[in-house]
Write the structure tokens for this entry.
Amino acid sequence: MESPKYSRSDAFVVRPDEKGVIYEYPNQSHALRISYMEVNGRRPGEPGKAFLEEDCTFAIYIIDGAGTIWIEGEEFKLGAQDVATVLAGKRWYVEGNLKYVTATTPAFYPEQSTMVDVNPG
């Protein structure tokens, strides 16, 4: 049986760059993924771009810091103990200096995540 408990040493790093890091934790289920993220600046880093998760909906719980998340052109200020939800199919990006945890359903997989223009046109 796979362990039901995981530590940071069990996590693997995804998309590291100068703007932050993502730690993906192992999981026994394809229905849910938990990640820890640190953002220092803007993600994605390219101005005018946003992420689009085709299949995954996720909630972000802010542990520390402050910033802003844009979802489909709407701005939401974020601070410690706030939660933001991004539904599948929505364009989004985040800016600030933040440490947060995401819960993604179904479990995040990179192939469903693309970078798109913030303002389609």
Observations:
- The two ends are 49 Å apart (CA to CA).
- The first strand starts at residue 12 and ends at 17.
- The chain has one domain: 11-109.
- The CA atoms of residues 31 and 106 lie 4 Å apart.
